[in-house]
Amino acid sequence: MKKLLIASIVLLVLGIVIISIALSFNSNESNSGKNVKTFTLTGENFKFVLDDVSNPDIEVNKGDLVKIEFKSTKGLHDWIVDEFNVSTSQVKETNETTFVEFVADKTGTFEYYCSVGQHRANGMKGKLIVK
Fold first, then answer.
1. What residues have CB less than 8 Å from 123, skipping those under 6 apart?
2. Residue 94 and residue 57 share a domain
3. Looking at the structure, do residues 108 and 59 belong to the same domain, yes or no?
4. Residue 12: helix, strand or coil by DSSP?
5. Cβ(39)–Cβ(48) under 8 Å?
6. How many domains does the chain have?
7. I want to staple 56 with a disulfide (CB 3.0 to 4.6 A). Which of 46, 50, 102, 122 is the partner?
8. Mean pLDDT of 36-41
């Protein structure tokens, strides 16, 4: 009788562990199932550049995982979007690269910009459009 009780408890605990593992894999799959949008931006003087376009509109869909790869070829720069509370670290013109990622969880048009000195005032900004 004792052996049956112990075996039942062991099976119950084992079942709980297996279910927990299965649920965690399922949770990871739903996160990885998000549409990932990756953009490689470069800071140059008073502008951002993406595929030879200065201060481009960055368009994503609500729910997308947005990944920004940011580097500078001229000057000290960063990349910030206040409404999503995201920013890269500041990078110098040594082609150092920094990354930031976030989920675009609200729709609208949001300004991204460089916070160094007067860069924003001098036009180093663009639009993040979430549809």
1. 46, 47, 55
2. yes
3. yes
4. helix
5. no
6. 2
7. 50
8. 95
